[in-house]
Amino acid sequence: MAFTKDLFASVMLMGVYSLLSASFFVLMDAVDVAFTEAAVGAGISTILMLTVLAMAGRFENRALHHPRIALFVVIGTGIMLVFGTFDMPAFGDVNAPVQTHVAPHYIQQSGAEIDIPNIVTSVLASYRGFDTFGEVVVVFTAVIGVLALLEMKSEEVQNSVAPAPMYQHKILRIVGKILIPPIMLFALYVQFHGEYGPGGGFQAGVIFSAAIILHAILFGVETTAKAISLPFVKVLAALGVLIYGSVGIVAMLNGGRFLEYNALVENDITGQHVGIIVIELGVGITVATAMMVIFLTFARRVGKTNGENA
Fold first, then answer.
1. How far apart are CA 247 and CA 250, in angstroms?
2. DSSP letter assigned to residue 301
3. Per-residue pLDDT tens for 162-181?
4. Which of 43, 101, 208, 264 lies in disulfide reach of 288, CB 3.0 to 4.6 Å?
5. pTM of the model as a whole
6. Alpha carbon 9 to its chain's center
């Protein structure tokens, strides 16, 4: 990809790479990770990059200078990263710390401590809840960054009405209208079934936003932006983070530590269930609304940079 000027080809190759990675994760019995990689890496990310290409153009501009300094920094960083791997245990080493302490504890104790069948959910939502909270904040920060860069001249966009890219494809619009409700329903299933199977807030949020993005592609960005009330969606993006953080605050007010679900109610197991369900809801809301806001913000700018009516 580094040697081609065709950015569309680069995006397609990245999507294929993500899809193949998802297949590898399935072979390694990491279905949750494969689910996320397929939905986020091969799905939403590809759509977002294609939307950006619609604004920026398919081919990379000729470089005005030789990026020797950047190349030197990349090569130097790569060498340091490779050198750092020499201190890491070999892949699959049974004597690695993760195999002798962390993984056995999660596998053997999560049933008694968390009491949900999906260990991946126990790890993501409870054992490493701090890390997941950081990931949600990063997603929300991305929304803030996109809005700060592209919403500076909002009045220019609000007065234009962009036709749907696939408005002339009647069959696609009919099929899409039929598929959108089941996609949303499946997203809710993934959201609230994460304790018992592959799923959770990240996957559910991406699937739900995919339904909205499909609606925008078929019926027009402005139509979708009005139907879902974009200002309200922006508020929801912040609300998801607030819900997640509030769980930690409530635990502290009850005498526990931040995100210590056992302190939410008297019964520890019930506290774990309540905490996981609520923070997963916050994750799902933020991820879904963040994907919608980022896509719609980019899509509404398509054709506007050159004064066109897209």
1. 5
2. T
3. 566 667 778 888 888 899 99
4. 208
5. 0.81
6. 23
Residue in the structure block whose two tokens are 């790479």: 17
Question: What radius of gyration, in Å, describes the C-alpha atoms of the chain?
Answer: 22
Q: What is the pLDDT of residues 181-223, one digit of tens each?
A: 999 999 999 998 877 777 788 889 989 999 999 888 888 888 8
**171 SS3 class:** helix
Listed residue (54, 58, 59) closest to 295, CA to CA: 54
Q: Which residue has the tokens 């996609």?
A: 183
Amino acid code (one letter) for 307 = G
Q: Is the dihedral of CA 283, 284, 289, 294 positive or negative?
A: positive
The token pair that represents 76 in the structure block: 């130097």
Is 76 in contact with 84 (CB distance < 8 Å)?
A: no
Side chain identity, residue 279: I
